[in-house]
Amino acid sequence: MTRRIMLWYRNDLRVHDHEALHCAVREGAQILPVFIDSPTLGRHPLPGNPHIPSFRRKFRLESLIELDQRWREWNGSLVVMSGEPDQVIPHLCAKYGIDEVFLNAEASDDEYRQYQQLARNLQSAPTSCRLFYGASMIHPEDLPFELQDLPDIFTQYRKLVEARLRVRACFATPTAVQALPHQETPFEPQLPQTIVDVRSALPFQGGESAGHHRLQHYLWESDAIRTYKETRNGLIGTDYSSKLSPWLANGCLSAQHVFHEVRRYETERVANDSTYWMIFELLWRDYFRLVMEKFGTALFSLQGISPRNASPPRGRHIGTFEKWVNGRTGDRFIDANMRELLSTGFMSNRGRQNVASHFVHDLGMDWRLGAQYFEELLVDYNVYSNWGNWAYVAGVGNDPRENRRFNIARQANMYDPAGTYQALWLD
Ligand SMILES: Cc1cc2nc3c(=O)[nH]c(=O)nc-3n(C[C@H](O)[C@H](O)[C@H](O)COP(=O)(O)OP(=O)(O)OC[C@H]3O[C@@H](n4cnc5c(N)ncnc54)[C@H](O)[C@@H]3O)c2cc1C
Question: Which architecture characterizes domain 301-426 according to CATH?
């Protein structure tokens, strides 16, 4: 009898370079693709109950709509359900006689517990789970050290991996797939109404084809990657940086695929400091994931993973928090960045570093509140990069020795000398 495999999608909303999908097809199985919208995942109450626009939710829904369309081309469709995965999945497995559940591993505590609870609930069922690794640029098995030996300093990690950099080849998108027929309600979501701000760095559209278009544009059409190292600290416009982060965060683009495209660009056009720097940033992305895998929930504590006896600020004053959130601190550079985030769900890397530093080191606030707010707002939120960067800026992350306090006036002078960015968002 044909094997039946459930493909449980989480942050891997694509069909290209998807090892689990590839394996299920190779095994000749009938496949049931499933996404569970879990209401409890990563939810923390915020003080003052700020208004949270739905940029991230919209992006995810658009990504799911496209994934569903892909499966319809294979005469199937994506099952999208709400609830707790450890309850919903065993129910679906029993209903459709599933032999095995395939999923991509996540390293965050919440998602790992979800998986463990599911595996426990399936223990008495004839269904097993198989984990794949599709989120990082470097496959964990190709790292030149064991997880417990991950260096606490990024530069040490980078040198180790660069000395033997190996990024696996991508898995081809399957052409013929046997989708398992099902009777679940078709996925026809209402997209939340969001207003597209004309000042937006990019009107982000979810889904893997939009991700591929963006990559194509940034590398091949605009050639913007050629000068990435010089432009990456920019604040205005579409091409000062790649803007690939939302697609990477949702897994609409595979990091391996981006790597190989950059390498192809280096071969066919130019290899320079800028193309190197793009890979360098993707190494940061991998690194923060490994940091969370190594330290687990410690990264969510006030002291973070700092080996020192750090005592970061612990302010939780609602008024101060609300002024920061709404871009009304009185510092024009900070306020412009915070308003961009609130209006679009995106902020440049330069902006993020400044508003985070200001929140912690100038306003004396508990860095975790800032991280939680970013978690709700960012269209490219990813648990590893967000919490890792926040802890880093707060001085309680990896490499906690340096003073991470930014001189905001100096930064504004350096990166927005004519005040154009501030005027764009404030005047
Ligand atoms: C406080 C704070 C919070 C952040 N939260 C997130 C988050 O939730 N999700 C997220 O993807 N990035 C986060 N970043 C990192 C970085 O700001 C964004 O990845 C970047 O601005 C996205 O724009 P881009 O795709 O144009 O990046 P580019 O400059 O074009 O870089 C290419 C890719 O490299 C990766 N990258 C670049 N910088 C970093 C970095 N510092 N850390 C990890 N990966 C990096 C991203 O995947 C990015 O898409 C955060 C940074 C700070 C300081």
Answer: Orthogonal Bundle (1.10)
